[in-house]
Amino acid sequence: MGSDWFRRYGQAPQDGPRLVCFPHAGGAASAFVPLSRTLAPAVDVVAVQYPGRQDRHQEPPVDDIARLADRLAEEMSALDDRRPFAFLGHSMGAVLAYETARRLEQRSAPGPERLFLSGRGAPTAAPSPHDQVRTDAHVLSAIRRLGGTTGGVFQDPDLLAMVMPALRADYRAIGAYAWTPGAPLNVPFTVLIGDNDPVVTVEEASDWRGFSAARTDVHVFSGGHFYLDHHTREVADLVAEALGVVTVAR
C-alpha cells in the first residue's frame, strides 16, 4: 500500500468501498481482523497501525492526538485510488478518525463518506476525566476496568513490558486531548455504543450529533466497552448497509 501506517488482512477487492479502521488506546491493527473477514470481499478493510506496537514495536509511539491525526491525514494519500472510503474508529480511535476527517476537510482533500464512531463520547473542550491516568498502575487499572486485555498479559512481565510503552503514550495522548472549536463536518455519522460501557453513556455518545452537519444515527448494542468483540456480525451488517453493499453471511 506504500505506507507503514496501514494493514490489510486479505486481498483487496477490485471494487467496492474501503473502510479505514482506527484502533483503541493500546490497540493494534489486528484488532479489526474479525471485522475485516466478515466484511470481505464486499468491503476493503484497512486498519491503521500506530507506531510502537506489533510490527512497528521498535518505533517510538506518538503521544499526541494532533500529531497522529496530522500524520494520518498525510498518509491517506497512500490509499488514494479514487475508491470511496469511510472511517471507523473505536474509543481513542474514534477521536483520531474524527480529527483526521477534520484535517482532510480543511485541506479540501478527499474525505470519508461516513464516520463510524464507536465506544467514545463526543469531544469536549476539556479532557475527559476517564482518560486522566498518571502512573502505570492507573493505566493498568483503566484497562482492567474496560475489559480490553486478557489477564495473561498482566501476569507475564515480558508481555507487559512490550505493551506498556504504547499504552503510556496512548493514554498521554487521549488524556491531553481537548476539542478545538470548529464547524461541524459535512459527513454523516454512525455512532455505536455498548449499553453497559463503564466510561461512556449512551447520552454522551449521542452528543456526536452536534459535530456533523449531516445525519447522525446512534446504535446501542448489549455489552461493555468492547461490545464489538461479541457483535461483529451485527456491526458488519450495519456498516455494509450504510455503505450500500451486501456481505455474505458466515
Strand content: 5-15%
Helical residues, percent:
25-40%
CATH superfamily: Alpha/Beta hydrolase fold, catalytic domain
User: Count of DSSP helices?
Assistant: 8
What is the tally of beta strands?
A: 7
Radius of gyration, rounded?
Answer: 17 Å
The CATH class designation is Alpha Beta
Report the biggest beta sheet as strand number plus sense, adding barrel if it closes: 7 strands, mixed
**Total tally of structural domains:** 1
Distance between the termini: 28 Å
Strand order of the largest sheet: 1-3-2-4-5-6-7
CATH topology: Rossmann fold
Mean pLDDT: 91
Poorly predicted spans: none
In one word, what is the shape? globular
The string of secondary-structure elements, in order, is EEHEHEHEHHHEHEH
Secondary-structure-based class equals: alpha/beta
- The appropriate CATH architecture is 3-Layer(aba) Sandwich
Can you describe this structure in just a few lines?
The chain has 250 residues and is an alpha/beta fold. The protein contains eight helices and seven strands; from the N terminus they run ββαβαβαβαααβαβα.
SSE blueprint and pairings:
Layout: E1 6-8, E2 18-22, H1 33-39, E3 44-48, H2 65-75, E4 85-90, H3 92-106, E5 115-118, H4 136-146, H5 151-155, H6 157-176, E6 189-194, H7 202-206, E7 216-221, H8 232-243
Parallel strand pairs: 2-3, 2-4, 4-5, 5-6, 6-7
Antiparallel strand pairs: 1-3
Domain Thioesterase TesA-like: 20-243
Family: Belongs to the thioesterase family.
Protein name: Thioesterase
